[in-house]
Amino acid sequence: MLFKPEITGAIRVALFVFIVTIAHTQATGKPLTPSMYTVDEGSIEGYCGIDLIQTNRTHIKEYVHIHTAILPGTDIRFSASMLQVNSQQLSNTTIGDSTIGIWHSFGLLCNTVLSGIILELVLPAAPDVYYNETTMPAESGITTFSLSFVAAYATHPLTIIFSGCYTLMPKPGESVFEGLSLNILRVSTWKNVFGLNPFKKGSMLYYTKLSDDIVSVALTAVYEIFPVIPYLSFCLGDRVNNSPVYGEHELPVLYKGYNDTFFLVTSMGIRYFFSEKTFIGTGLLYNVLQNYDYSIQYAISLEASSVW
User: Fold this and answer.
1) Alpha helices in the chain (DSSP H)
2) Which of 101, 224, 236, 263 suits a disulfide with 157, CB 3.0-4.6 Å?
3) Pairing of strands 298-307, 44-54
4) Has residue 149 got a pLDDT over 60?
């Protein structure tokens, strides 16, 4: 048996606070798979970090994340950030996007694979990347909604974490929830299945609206030599419709690659754990496919996290 009913020791450490996903396309040098750490009831997980992000100019991003349990096996997650457009202009700051997510752990499948899902909503506060791509590549400024499935398999001292993510991405000037109807007194609500009917024009999930959506998969390998935990991570993604939206660049994917849609990103780093609930770390993210001057080239991160 590879897992015990309660994740402890090295495996617990390996799954701790792996928080970055392509779902909201945050440009950071941390692992590219979502966190599988489930906070105990009555506990709070706090995380903060700073990234130096290089495009055709330098950006600095400061961020905080808070996770807390709402039910056994279920956490709610919040994040917020601030952006500095140039490292030499420390007063030139703007608010970044915020996110709210719900993580639910399925526990062990077949007593060998740990799994769970996360729903995440981006609350845009940064400038809209549809219209500010050249100046704001570190956030999207667009409301998105994503669903990720995450699984982990461990054979000491190696843990492999896999995630698959589908992100609903609105068209320029639209809301990702446009067409969603919750008014049960209207006949159209039932015909559209509350706006979830992909074949009903005007519904939230009408198939022609899905062309801008993003599908991505990520894989992270974690090697446990506690208290030091190195990792290597890859993320591969694409847009459902590969043709350009319009013009040449109008697509809010921060890791832009060939055809304006395809992207491949890798990250590596190391974390030092003072205990199973507290660590500091550093990481490097590299964008393998770089088409444009303003696409992300690399990001360097410093991070710290603890549960109390």
Assistant:
1) 9-14, 129-132, 187-191
2) 224
3) antiparallel
4) yes
